[in-house]
Amino acid sequence: MPANLPPHYYELEREFKAEKDTSRKLELAQQLLALMPKHKGTDKLQADMKSKISKLKKQLQSGSKKHGDTSKEDFTHIPREGAGQVVLIGPPNSGKSSLLAELTNAKPEIADFPFTTHRPTTGMMPFENVQIQLIDTPPISPQHTEKYIPELIRKADTVLLLVDAASPGSLEQTEHLFEFLKEKNISLEGNPRYEHPEDKRRFKKSYMLVTKSDLPECEGAVDVFEEFYGEMLPIIGISVKSEEDLATLKRLVFDSLGIVRAYCKERSKEPDMDDPVILPIGGTVEDMALEIHKDFAYNLKYARIWGREVHDGQMVSGDYQVVDGDIIELHI
Ligand SMILES: Nc1nc2c(ncn2[C@@H]2O[C@H](COP(=O)(O)OP(=O)(O)OP(=O)(O)O)[C@@H](O)[C@H]2O)c(=O)[nH]1
Ligand SMILES: [Mg+2]
Questions:
Q1: Residue 247: is its pLDDT beyond 50?
Q2: Sign (positive/negative) of CA torsion 83, 209, 200, 69?
Q3: Whole-model pTM?
Q4: Residue to mutate, 110, 135, 210, 249, ligand 1, most ligand atoms under 8 Å from C-beta
Q5: Domains and CATH numbers, the chain
Q6: Cβ–Cβ < 8 Å for 157, 205
Q7: DSSP 118-148
């Protein structure tokens, strides 16, 4: 008898197989079991899935005993991937997960009610030839805020604060969010101040995104938020339904990271324009050489550059500051 599984089952099954996190894997296994039509053709499948669920439950129990705590996993550290790490924060239902889903290949849960997201979810956002890591987070709210959220913000390169202008309490929610972050010594700023080593405060490069701008009730919302927060950080109206808004946002996020891309070229060969070396703005030819191999940096005599601010093939020394898009031939 054929199993007749719904199409969504196979998508979820792929996610289940790739998932490394035990508790998420358990959630997916339970969803898969629920999706299986209950008839003779799925008897074996159901039994297999039930046995996987019971194994996963045991693993979770032994894992929490081993670490001596009963809380869920530690989300304070999410390994960085790609050219930069950007965290999406905001009050409940403000559209964080929707934005992650539009900009990356991640498939977070999205729903029209608060507290849908329970754990951080990451996705990679392609921008031209680089990938940028986005982290969707559970909401910040007077009712409940996960403890690890401030730490995720401290570690990120850029913060996108999403506020939902369609929600009647959005200004109060935003005010609460800023107070919460202030208590945690975090200040969201368009142009972050210099962080003194002895100062506990962290000034994070941030943008406020006023979401759902396609809805008629959100007309004029950007101006309202601008009045309250415009001096602290840039306020941008967006809709996940607008391709133009999403494209503008991608460029903005890339620019916020303060990075440049350089392309390595071997003599008499074409450079690989799909594989840039990422450097912070101000990074030099020597820094680029170091990224490739320390011997290149130690033995560097000079470099030839092709780019926006040089003559083709101009000779420069190791202290030349790389401009985004420079093609560099290292001579040792
Ligand atoms: N019209 C419109 N609806 C949107 C937009 N962005 C999100 N939504 C809707 O807003 C609701 C909440 O979206 P989510 O992405 O789940 O919000 P969230 O901030 O992740 O919510 P929590 O996880 O509960 O904090 C869903 O019904 C979305 O479809 C938008 O740009 N326009
Ligand atoms: Mg969410």
A1: yes
A2: negative
A3: 0.77
A4: 110
A5: 7-66 (no CATH), 85-256 (3.40.50.300), 259-331 (3.10.20.30)
A6: yes
A7: -S-EEEEEEETTEEEEEEE-PPP-SS---TT
